[in-house]
Amino acid sequence: VRFFERKKAEKALTAQQKLLNGASGTDREALQQAVTDAEHDLLYIKHFPRHKKYLALYPSENGSDPYVVKRRARIRAAIIQRSAAGTLVSGGDALEDEDADEEGQSDNLDDDFFAVEENAEDAVVGQAVAPAAQVQVEQPIKQKRPPDGSAGVGAAKKRKKRPAS
């Protein structure tokens, strides 16, 4: 889906750029906005987060689903914002924390885990640790061969060679 959408977006971008090059004064502003939108579409396709299910820009079905439209707009706005800030990484890996930002779950500083005081951490680090001499490493169990010299249960049997005829 991404490949075909990228081809559509690239084709639309080149068409808008050709129209912009041959446009006059008043139409030029509208065409410049169309070129910018086409560039943003291309950024959306190229930098969509890889860990999420891709939401098509040009859907054949469910195009007016409000949930999909809202998510697409959020992700597109985040990609455009990061592109403008210059923090956009190729491949969509930069948006892996998008879920946490969208849903407001990035409040790790309020978590009790992070509220440990420095003195308490030093006390835990200063506790005695078990000496390495007391740790025993288990040796792997070696399988014994049966006394008849065969390979044992479950081993493949050797085939006898047939004389050439």
TrEMBL record:
Mark out the compositionally biased spans (Acidic residues).
94-109
Similarity-based family: Belongs to the EFG1 family.
The protein's name:
rRNA-processing protein EFG1
Where can this protein be found? Nucleus, Nucleolus
What are the record keywords, sorted? Coiled coil, Nucleus, rRNA processing
Name the segments for region: Disordered.
90-109, 134-165
The Gene Ontology biological process terms listed for this entry are: maturation of SSU-rRNA from tricistronic rRNA transcript (SSU-rRNA, 5.8S rRNA, LSU-rRNA)
Q: Which GO cellular component does the record give, naming just one?
A: nucleolus
- Spell out the Basic residues composition-biased ranges: 156-165
